[in-house]
Each structure stands twice: as C-alpha cells, then as structure tokens.
Amino acid sequence: MNVIADFLLATGAFTTAIYCLVLSRRLKRFTALETGMGGAIAVLSAQVDDMTKALERARGSAHASSSALEDQVRRAEAAAARLELILASLHDMPDAIPDTPTATENLEDRRPRFVRRRPERTSLRVAE
C-alpha cells in the first residue's frame, strides 16, 4: 500500500512540475517586451503620453481662442450699444424741414436738363 501511495505522490509531484513549467513559459511570453503583452502595454503607455500632450496643447489653444472670442464679443457689445444710441438720437430728429418744397412741387418747377458729351477721340494718335 505504501508503494502505491508513493507512486501516486511521485506522479502528482511530476504533474505539478510540468504544470509549473508550462505556466512559467506562458508568463515569459506574456511579459516579453517585444512580442507579448509587455510590448503592447509599453506601446499603449507611449500612446497615452502622446495623447496627454496633445490634450494639453488643445486646452491651451482652446483657452487662447476663448479669450480672443470674449474680447471680440465685448467689442461687438460696445459697438451695438453705440449703434443703439445713434439710432435713438435719429428718432429725435425732425422728419422734414418745413422750408423745403415737397417732391411734387420740385417736379413741376423743373426744367429739362440736357447733358452734352464730347465724342471720344480714339482716332487721334499720340506723338511718339
């Protein structure tokens, strides 16, 4: 009975050793920097660093654009306020000057006007 127990114990130990060997090889392939997961993790880490830098540049650009846009909005609001003031002052002006004749009176008193034009002198030559 001891022989059978020793045989089963040795078989179990040998099976466990083979299992550990297989796991060790898989772990080496998994962590290899060139081909395994270690390489993929290194590449992803580099990409995350690049994306972080790009994000910081985009934030800076967005902040600069936001500042420029706020400045333009302030200037536009100031110009709109001035235009409103000008329009309000135009409403206070009288509609027509009473001393000027109306449009119908101007048509009746007008004389026909002739415009004379000189003929073009394309036939003349310039002396050289």
Mean pLDDT, all residues: 82
Number of helices: 3
Give the biggest beta sheet: none
Helicity level, as a percent range?
Answer: over 70%
Gap between N and C termini, in Å? 136 Å
Structural class by helix and strand composition? mainly alpha
Provide the gyration radius in Å.
Answer: 48 Å
Sketch the topology as an H/E string, one letter per element. HHH
**Fraction in beta strands:** under 5%
**Low-confidence parts:** none
> Would you count the extended β strands for me?
0
Name the shape in a single word. Answer: rod-shaped
Characterization of this structure:
The protein has 128 residues and is mainly α. The protein is built from three helices and no strands. Among the domains are: 1-31; 37-92. The longest helix has 55 residues, at 37-91.
Features:
128 residues; mainly alpha; 3 helices
Would you summarize the structure shown here?
The protein has 3 helices and no strands. With 128 residues, the chain is mainly α.
